[in-house]
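Page header: ASSEMBLY MODEL / two components / 658 residues total.
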Amino acid sequence: MSEEADHDHRPLVLMHRLPSFALPFRDRLHSHFRVLDPHSSITAGETPQAFLSRHAASVQALITVCPSPVAADLLDLLPSLRVVVGSSAGVDHIDVAECHRRGIAVTNAGNAFSEDVADYAVALLLDVLRRVSAGNRFVRSGSWPQKGEYPLCSKLGGKRVGIVGMGSIGSEVAKRLAAFGCRVAYNSRNKKPSAPYPYYANVCDLAVNSDVLVVCCALTDKTHHIINKDVLTALGRDGIIINVGRGALVDEKELVQYLARGEIGGAGFDVFEKEPEVPKELFAMDNVVLSPHRAVLTPESFEAVFEVIMANLKAFFSNKPLLSPVKLE
Amino acid sequence: MSEEADHDHRPLVLMHRLPSFALPFRDRLHSHFRVLDPHSSITAGETPQAFLSRHAASVQALITVCPSPVAADLLDLLPSLRVVVGSSAGVDHIDVAECHRRGIAVTNAGNAFSEDVADYAVALLLDVLRRVSAGNRFVRSGSWPQKGEYPLCSKLGGKRVGIVGMGSIGSEVAKRLAAFGCRVAYNSRNKKPSAPYPYYANVCDLAVNSDVLVVCCALTDKTHHIINKDVLTALGRDGIIINVGRGALVDEKELVQYLARGEIGGAGFDVFEKEPEVPKELFAMDNVVLSPHRAVLTPESFEAVFEVIMANLKAFFSNKPLLSPVKLE
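Prediction written out in full:
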């Protein structure tokens, strides 16, 4: 480490990310923290691993950029680590249980992304119901003058929308859909006193009573493939699935089959099980809207998550309560 | 006319439409009215004109399917006509002034389409801001695994949305956008006591103070090209235009130029000046969403407009007040 670094009194923070996922506000972080980023700070010829082991002993705080995993193997390298600051709403890439066992706190993006993700869920639902993307393709292909009228679409108002996961995102989705005249119900681990909508403890029961399911719960061992064959059958052939949570919340292989057989009405996906891979069968379907995991990709969301990350780091280094700690379920 | 028709006591209604625009509920109309449709009722060898002149003298009520024009030349053929029942919200295809001069009442679709059109305006706005259709194309083209991350889009919440035309559709748009956290203002002929939003008497002033314009006013001589060069300049290079009214409300040629030069941020069109022709320059633009005039194309809207048409016809034939009379401006 250079002499300059030795006299640097900014707290040390390790940036943990995949090479292709950079945070847009790195310079602003640098003004408060000494940021170690193996992908941009290493000296020529050094491997990221070598760089890491050179600095690992003193690192107390780590920022992790989804989907870069934080598990026992990484934690073993960082004996002083006391906080993992996440930059996403979902923390399925972080082994929270293992962190907690080692006395390491974990934070997430809090509500920073909730409004943008909720907006995107509504956008996907409107697109599937009203065939906006399909109509756009129809016009751009030059088909309108030749083929004339386009097939009917379906009204949003009056639809029974089941929200799977009534957290911060789910409640923003519900607020928006109420303005369109939808009838909202929900499933979550527990009934929420703050949510004035019918509660279903079982997702299949919710699906039977819904025209649309919006999936926005956290991905955990318990919610993996929460949208399975039984739920799809319960939702029925006119039913629509919107997924803005994580790909693995839906049994994608089953859903593709249901769509191919016409046993489900349509779907909007912002997330997939094996991103960026998307099942090719979906490409030919007009009742499906595909999006490259971008529900949070606005400058406004990035600014909001920067504030949350800064607040968590500042709280940590001044021994105050963290802004958005993740509790173990 | 057959002997059967002579003994038919159902009131006579003339259907006025282009061959390619049929109403979906014709059979249900038939159960209450004797519907004369030159495109389906004529006997072999007869021209629509000959058919019309054979029945014209007794026709008191006419249903017109947009965009089939109702003007002096048609009215001249129908000396007994007393009501023109429109099936659309906009009546720019009907010469309302000429009808009124002849003592002929005109009705429109009332509020039947307002919710669906408002939903569609929000869908187009979300699509332009969040690049849903563009993202869909990106995924379907197989670009995601190759090109990786997609450009940032823009958050709906906080946007200043100027609504041009605060009628039934405009107020439904405002209600929806409020749930997304937008700041709504509006322009219309007159300030509306029922609209709790800032009012601008001048569209340019509204544009200067807006990030987005949603155009949903009636097309009249006064509103033709209401979105012109000056308004586009006032809206500015990040501004977005959504048009769910009529194509000719926007100076399309100018707008295409502004888009091509990057002097406006993006646009969503459900309507065009020369439908179904769409300016080819738009096909290559990613910041534009094109839709084949389908904001009302849901079974729910069709059912609602059927109810309005039936109510107007029944009121007319029983000398009661019409449900949705169009007043001359």
